[in-house]
């Protein structure tokens, strides 16, 4: 209830965990629920990875798209160019920027599945990639 009254920050991460994804909440994907990169890539027909860390983080996956935080025009162009069957998997360094980035994408009109990686980030995903 408190979350819903705070229009500036609504929805919060906790609210999105309870609602498990909706038109205003991206779907959380906690690190503890992910055992492999194949599991992430099976979230949809066409899963695209989106790295929402600032550009000062130079290392990322070669198959991931970089969408730094607070660059809404770039984000809008990216979303408009995605095929209809795209599912987004958003990650960052620890989870917060992934949540806020995914939430911004929903505010910009994204209506397809979107997941954000929580309680972990690029370092954890890199370990999964090495285990493949």
Describe this structure in words.
With 132 residues, the chain is of the alpha/beta class. The chain is 36% helix and 17% strand. It has six helices and five strands, in the order H-H-E-H-E-E-H-E-H-E-H. It has helices at 2-5, 13-19, 37-41, 72-80, 96-107, 122-131, and strands at 27-30, 46-51, 65-66, 86-91, 114-118. The protein has a five-stranded parallel β-sheet, with helices on one face. Helix 5 (96-107) links the parallel strand 4 and strand 5 (114-118). The longest helix is centred in the last third of the chain and has 12 residues, at 96-107.
Task: Throw out a few tags for this protein.
5-stranded parallel β-sheet, single chain, 36% helix, alpha/beta, 5 strands, 6 helices
Count of alpha/pi helices: 6
- The N- and C-terminal alpha carbons lie at a distance of 43 Å
According to DSSP, the number of beta strands is 5
Mean pLDDT, all residues:
87
| Rounded radius of gyration (Å) | 14 Å
Give the strand content: 15-25%
Q: H/E series, N to C?
A: HHEHEEHEHEH
Largest beta sheet: strand ordering: 1-5-4-2-3
Task: State the major sheet.
Answer: 5 strands, parallel
Give the proportion of residues in helices.
25-40%
Extract low-pLDDT stretches: none
Shape descriptor reads globular
